[in-house]
Amino acid sequence: MGALFYGDGGTPISLPDRLLAHVKVVTATKLRRNESFTLSWRHGDEQPGRTTIWLQPAIPLRFVFESAESETLDPELLTELAHAASSSGGMALTLEHVRRADVVAA
């Protein structure tokens, strides 16, 4: 399980390594272009609800992966996430994204 550290907060946002790798690529591409966007996800069963954060170049981000090896990326999932990040709804991560990212490794 990987972690995304957002801003000055020390609390990580936990995501599976493979999905985090996809999020990292899309995020780096958008922020390199000075394009801000939202990232949303539903909380797990232990905490109902959802969270949305605003990503923009001035906010520090750190991606930490459990695995030392680079992940294999799914070009279709990257495209889907990039389109979502460019939409008014932003990039909303779902369990389907987790499943699709895991399929790449199989």
Overview of this protein structure:
- This protein has one domain (2-105).
- With 106 residues, it is an alpha+beta fold.
- α1 crosses α2 (75-86).
- Helices cover 37% and strands 25% of the residues.
- The chain has helices at residues 17-32, 75-86, 95-105; strands spanning 2-6, 13-15, 37-42, 50-55, 61-64, 91-93.
H-E order: EEHEEEHEH
Average predicted local confidence, pLDDT: 90
Please describe the biggest sheet, giving its number of strands, its sense, and whether it closes into a barrel. Answer: 3 strands, antiparallel
Question: What is the structural class?
Answer: alpha+beta
Uncertain spans, ≥5 residues at pLDDT below 50? Answer: none
Return the domain count: 1
Shape summary? globular
What is the spatial order of strands in the main beta sheet?
Answer: 2-1-5
Instruction: Calculate Rg over CA atoms.
Output: 13 Å
Strand content: 25-35%
Report how far the terminal alpha carbons are from each other.
17 Å
Helix fraction by DSSP (H/I, runs of at least 4): 25-40%
Number of strands: 6
Brief digest:
By secondary structure, the protein is an alpha+beta fold. It is 37% helix and 25% strand.
List the helices and strands and how they pair.
Blueprint: E1 2-6, E2 13-15, H1 17-32, E3 37-42, E4 50-55, E5 61-64, H2 75-86, E6 91-93, H3 95-105
Parallel strand pairs: 3-6
Antiparallel strand pairs: 1-2, 1-5, 3-4
Keywords:
106 residues, 25% strand, 3 helices, 6 strands, 37% helix, alpha+beta, three-stranded antiparallel sheet, single chain
